[in-house]
């Protein structure tokens, strides 16, 4: 078990009243500051300081659970995906709603392209909608036109941009599909977990070696793929499951990862061996989302108990 009995007292970030659904860190180059965004079933997505956990603002307007909250790389726009059959684009500075994007079912995920020009959404419809943000914002309040539609075979839980052209879609059929938005007829590659369990979490991380690694959590396993070769690097069976919610996040060094899901424990594992290095209890409900900060010094966990907790990667430091 390695160093699994190591304990630490995390920073507790209260404010939410229902289970957390997603966490995202963003490094803002202009302000030289890290932000932490949280999506929650209480309909009130929040923005916090990524280091201290201090509350900055709440984005109010959704009438259903918010499943995803993301900020673009400029730090000027935020987006949310909700159970009220809509996604929204917000002014991240003022918190004002700029654009409402109606859907035909629950929207589970939203993400900005790296150049901030596009927004992709996905959810229960099994359809990825890609919006041209400049065109949408210019034409409001008229109906926002979808620039590209990518049709999947099953509901979508996560979408992640690889670059401004390629996009990953994690689906309920246990597969991750790689699409080129300029060729919407069929995906260019399929990553298959070979077990059919719904993929609950998906992350891309460029590690210290320069390799771009995709992390996926599904069923009772965490998977890691090399995005250049498309080869499966590692596959580990966890002491938890991800059948309802939960996820995994890879440290920027590529040396360890964090996983949380069906119980109250936050676990850290060795990437090369899968050995459990640390195990922390602090939450009072199952873990619903986990993410490392961009500099790797902290990681955040969100729980069914409605709290976010910030943990040190190196507790003795």
Automatic annotation (TrEMBL):
Pfam families: WD40 (PF00400). Keywords: mRNA processing, mRNA splicing, Repeat, WD repeat. One of its GO terms (molecular function) is RNA binding. The keyword Metal-binding does not apply. WD repeats lie at residues 59-100, 100-133, 280-317. InterPro entries: WD40/YVTN_repeat-like_dom_sf (IPR015943), WD40_repeat_dom_sf (IPR036322), WD40_rpt (IPR001680). SUPFAM superfamilies: WD40 repeat-like. Belongs to the WD repeat STRAP family. PANTHER family: EUKARYOTIC TRANSLATION INITIATION FACTOR 3 SUBUNIT I, SERINE-THREONINE KINASE RECEPTOR-ASSOCIATED PROTEIN. This is Serine-threonine kinase receptor-associated protein. It comes from Cylindrotheca closterium.
